[in-house]
Fold:
Amino acid sequence: MTKQRALILRLVRGSCAHKTAEQIWQAAKAEMPSIVMATVYNNLNALAEAGEIIRVRVAGGPDRFDKTVTRHFHLVCDECGEMTDLTGVQDPTAQIEGEYGVCLSAMEINAHYICSKCMEGRS
Amino acid sequence: MTKQRALILRLVRGSCAHKTAEQIWQAAKAEMPSIVMATVYNNLNALAEAGEIIRVRVAGGPDRFDKTVTRHFHLVCDECGEMTDLTGVQDPTAQIEGEYGVCLSAMEINAHYICSKCMEGRS
DNA sequence: ATTCAGATTTAGAATGATTCTAAAAAGGAG
DNA sequence: CTCCTTTTTAGAATCATTCTAAATCTGAAT
Structure:
C-alpha cells in the first residue's frame, strides 16, 4: 500500500460522486503534484480488482469509480454525465441465470435520462 | 441514401451477430474496396440516429450494431465478446420512472459471463 | 538499521476506438 | 443539365486507457 494508492482510495471513498479517472487525478494532484495519470489508472485498476472499489463503465463517456461495492445500478444524465445510484431496482441476475443456464460474472444496468439541472438549462 | 449507406444497412440487417464497426468495415470492403472507416462510422451513426439500427455500447469492448430495434437486453461473453439477445427479461424502466420521477431515454442492461465455447477452451 | 527482490511510480510513447477536417465526389430537386 | 447540399475520402486528431522501460519505493528477512 503506497502513498499513492492510499490517496486514491481515500479520494474515491471520500466522495459520493462517481468520479472519472481524470477527476480523481485532478484531486490527487492537489495533494501530490507529481502524481501521473498512469499511476491513477494503475491504482484504480488494482483497487477494483481487489474489490475495494468498483469500476462503472457507461455508454458515451469515460469510466467512473464507485466506492459502493454492493451490487447496485445507475441512473446517468446523458448531458452532464452525473451518475446516481439506483436502489430498490429488481435484480434480473437470478432470472437470467435460471432461464439461460449461465453463470453471470457481472451485470450492468444503466438507465439514461436528462437530469433536472440540464433540463432547465435547455429553456 | 448512398450506395455506402445501403450497403452498411444491408450488412447489419443481414447478420444475427452484433458486429463491431471494424467487422462491418471488413465485410463492406469485400464489396466496395474503396470504402473507408469514417464512412462506416458516419453511416452507422446516421442509421442509429434514424432508428434503423441500434448502437450497443458494452463494457470492455468496442460498440456493436444491432438490427433489432425493439427494446431488449444483452448477454456478453467477456472473453470472445460474443453477444446474444436476452428476451423475456423483466424491464425495470417503468419501475425506475415511477420511483424516481424521471423519464428515461434509454436503458442498457448487459449481463456478463463466459460463454460455453470459451469455458471449454480453458480446460 | 541494511539489504534485496519484487512491486510501484514515473514519463512518455503507444494503442484502440471514434470523431473531426477539408477537399473531392456524388445525390437529387428543379 | 445545373446548382446546392450531403456524403465520401484520406488522413489527422482526439479521448480514454494501457504499455514500456528505467528509476524508485516497499516490506520482509537479515
